[in-house]
Automatic annotation (TrEMBL):
Positions of the UniProt region annotated as Disordered: 103-138, 184-208, 353-398
Name of protein: Alpha/beta-hydrolase
Acidic residues composition-biased segments: 388-398
Positions of transmembrane segments: none
Low complexity: compositionally biased ranges: 126-135, 190-208, 363-383
Protein origin, superkingdom: Eukaryota
């Protein structure tokens, strides 16, 4: 799908690239216009017409920030989600993480020290630079995301992450919860200060209001990886465990960093130069031949929808490692350190806020199962019917925790069900604002490929954006 690439210059001088997909919105708008224009003229006895009851003031599209998989780039969003998000009334903003895609600057410069007298420092830039650790990089990226939100001037927004985008989604959510807590504290302090000033000045004082915090409405995780859950159920468990060992020891082991750089370089070469020239049929056959691929994924891969998906997705992957440098692919290397790491501190922040015991409300935990089970790829999650438990709270309440939707295929062996269950049960504590949507027979690709309408509907859910279809019939 055609994309428009945008660039934001960050406060630290680096660049952040993101993509929008106007074609997806134009197609949705044309479809909506056709629906509005439908008029069935009967004979003289009556006329049947179908119209849509829109709000008097046209609503802007709800912004949805998209966090791509691993390894990949923001163009992925145009293949997986842009059209579904547009149909649901949203607009997708797909970010290229640092070092990924063609423009987004890496977290730190590689081999940028040209002083021949500082070879040792140059080597440190590649292996021991303090900015190359996952904690610092992840915090940096989260701040970059907030710069983008502020630059856009959004009052509210949602976030959507697929597969390897999971850790980044959780990090942004944790940051939002901290900002929300800080905002409440400032408001409390301001209120106390205002009361004190009023007492001293007989009510003639004025207090400058705080800048409103953009509200994070919905958090959508789709087949999202969370290595804190472990590697059980992953199709190549031994390889994932080996990769995790390298990641965990990278801060102290030069050998581990060497192998991670080698992996990043290999991934860059394969995706930039090999995959794009291979016939789609070869890629499909190779995936089907894998004994670990679930039946649902095999069927979807050879379907017309699957073929169309890969014809767009493979060229998009070619831009993934476009910034690859000699013996280094900084984006893939840094992404690996974050995505494959077993634990991130932001998980504990989320646990604290989704603890179910706020204001002594211990009954909030698992008031319903929060699990929607669909046994076939043809069945769908109904956001209007199945979100009744989430709608019990006033979604226009700015103090409300973001609604969390965890979408998972039970047959997924790339990111197993245990990861979704761990997030729902251990990180979100089965909170009433968290929902696990489970597709019993689907795998990784078939969930992402066939259920985009479901997770797009969740990501864009807002009470103020509901459209009502009315049927007017007049008989004589």
């Amino acid at each position: 799908m055609h994309s428009v690439e945008h660039t934001l210059k960050l406060k630290d001088g680096r660049l952040l690239a993101y993509h929008t997909f106007p074609n997806a919105e134009e197609e949705e708008e044309e479809e909506e216009k056709e629906k509005v224009k439908i008029k069935v003229k009967a004979d003289k006895e009556g006329t049947v017409s179908i119209t849509t009851a829109e709000q008097e003031q046209e609503q802007e599209r709800h912004p949805v920030l998209y966090f791509h998989g691993y390894p990949s780039c923001g163009l992925e969003g145009g293949v997986t989600s842009a059209r579904s998000v547009a149909r649901a009334g949203g607009r997708l903003y797909a970010i290229d993480r640092p070092g990924m895609g063609k423009i987004s600057s890496p977290y730190y410069p590689y081999n940028n020290n040209k002083d021949e007298d500082k070879e040792e420092e140059k080597e440190d830039n590649n292996y021991n630079n303090p900015n190359s650790n996952p904690n610092t990089n992840l915090d940096t990226f989260v701040e970059n995301v907030w710069e983008l939100v502020e630059d856009q001037g959004w009052n509210d927004f949602s976030i959507l992450g697929l597969s390897g985008g999971g850790p980044y989604i959780l990090a942004v959510l944790a940051s939002y919860l901290q900002r929300m807590e800080k905002q409440k504290y400032k408001q409390k302090q301001q209120h106390q200060s205002s009361e004190s000033s009023d007492d001293n000045s007989n009510g003639n004082s004025s207090t400058k209001s705080l800048q409103a915090l953009p509200r994070l409405r919905n958090v959508c995780l789709v087949c999202a990886i969370c290595m804190s859950a472990g590697s059980d159920g992953i199709k190549i468990k031994s390889d994932m465990e080996s990769m995790n060992t390298l990641v965990e020891s990278a801060s102290t082991s030069r050998i581990s960093r060497f192998w991670l750089h080698t992996f990043a370089l290999t991934q860059g070469i394969v995706n930039s130069y090999i995959f794009p020239i291979l016939p789609i049929s070869w890629i499909q056959k190779g995936m089907i031949a894998n004994a670990h691929t679930p039946i649902s994924d095999q069927q979807w891969i050879v379907s017309n929808e699957g073929e169309s998906f890969f014809s767009k997705y493979i060229p998009a992957r070619a831009s993934m490692a476009a910034q690859g440098q000699l013996l280094s692919n900084p984006g893939i290397y840094d992404d690996t350190l974050i995505v494959i790491r077993a634990h991130h501190s932001h998980e504990d922040i989320i646990r604290k806020h989704y603890s179910n015991d706020d204001d002594g409300d211990t009954s909030a935990k698992n008031t319903n199962t929060n699990t929607i089970t669909n046994s076939s790829s043809s069945s769908s999650y109904n956001t209007n019917k199945d979100d009744n438990d989430l709608e019990q709270d006033d979604d226009d309440d700015d103090d409300l925790l973001p609604a969390v939707g965890i979408f998972q295929g039970a047959s997924d062996i790339n990111v197993p069900l245990s990861h979704a269950q761990f997030m729902h049960q251990s990180i979100f504590n089965e909170h009433k604002r968290s929902k696990l949507i489970l597709y019993e027979d689907l795998g990784h690709l078939s969930t992402i490929g066939t259920k985009s309408g479901d997770y797009a509907a969740f990501a864009t859910r807002t009470r103020t954006r509901t459209r009502t279809l009315t049927l007017n019939c007049t008989d004589k």
